[in-house]
Design a protein that fits this description.
- This protein is of the alpha/beta class.
- It is built from nine helices and eight strands.
- Helix 4 packs across helix 6.
- The radius of gyration is 17 Å and the shape is globular.
């Protein structure tokens, strides 16, 4: 779980209530934290090229933390085929980087109010893409596929976005989705050929929410769930369904925590095998 700007692991855990979900469903949560010496606002530096590659910068540090937990049996045994990454805002942007750079480590990715891999290369372009979206999804998809190298494989992804987000424009959600679909098609053209405008299914969700929302799904040719898009009407830049009074939360929305858990639980992790055996 990768926090957003001005947050830290403790505030992010409390805001999302992911630990409660872990207790109910039986999984382990890891909260890497950004060093304020690397970024004064506590943001992951997702917009700098040195933090957009494997075996270097913040991605390498996050991967090392996760691997350390997997390899330690002091608390419990963790299935290395069922390790996932999720993030909010800057953490969501870093989650897309982790999925692209470490497809052999993470089975699937969840991006809440985040940005596409490689969508910015400096602070100025980061601000522009946050406020306006944009970019060439085909090129960004090719870049994500290239980052995987010989480990390239289809990576399931869930994207969650509020329509009233004035910090990260809602267009970025579609950009993340399109990038993921493009990269997956390049990795497996025989099974992944999705059109973001034509989901396999689309229906209202979150009946217990004060915000209307729509959950769209895309299934690949094997029948496996590959993509979900949860769009929430009226939600701003906040974790949907988070703790009241939490850091960047709005309890009125459907639970992003439960949506992410449900998506990860349905992920077919057999596709990790080929990525793990690649050099």
């Amino acid at each position: 779980m990768l926090h957003g700007c001005t947050q830290d692991p403790a505030t992010f855990a409390a805001a999302t209530r992911m630990n409660r979900a872990a207790g109910r469903h039986g999984f382990v949560v890891v909260y890497p934290g950004q060093d304020r010496g690397r970024n004064a606002q506590g943001c992951w530096n997702w917009f700098l090229p040195e933090h957009q590659r494997r075996d270097g910068g913040e991605p390498a540090a996050i991967a090392a933390t996760v691997r350390g937990v997997i390899e330690s049996n002091s608390i419990c045994t963790i299935d290395p085929a069922r390790v996932f990454v999720a993030g909010l805002s800057a953490g969501g942007a870093m989650a897309t980087i982790m999925g692209a750079c470490y497809p052999d480590l993470f089975a699937a990715v969840a991006v809440h109010s985040g940005l596409a891999y490689g969508s910015a290369t400096n602070a100025a372009s980061a601000l522009q893409v946050m406020l306006r979206g944009g970019g060439d999804a085909a090129q960004e998809g090719q870049a994500a596929h290239a980052a995987m190298g010989k480990r390239a494989r289809p990576i399931p992804s869930i994207v969650i976005q509020g329509t009233a987000d004035h910090t990260v424009a809602p267009d970025n959600a579609i950009q993340v989705l399109r990038q993921s679909m493009t990269a997956n098609h390049l990795a497996s053209p025989d099974t992944c050929d999705h059109d973001p405008d034509h989901p396999t299914s689309s229906q209202p969700s979150g009946s217990d929410s004060k915000f209307a929302s729509t959950l769209s799904r895309w299934i690949d040719r094997r029948g496996a769930l590959m993509h979900e898009l949860l769009m929430i009407e009226g939600l701003g830049h906040a974790w949907s369904g988070g703790a009241p009074g939490g850091s960047y939360t709005d309890p009125r929305g459907p639970s992003a925590t439960e949506a992410i858990w449900a998506f990860f639980a349905l992920t077919d992790t057999r596709v990790l095998a080929a990525a793990r055996t690649a050099p």
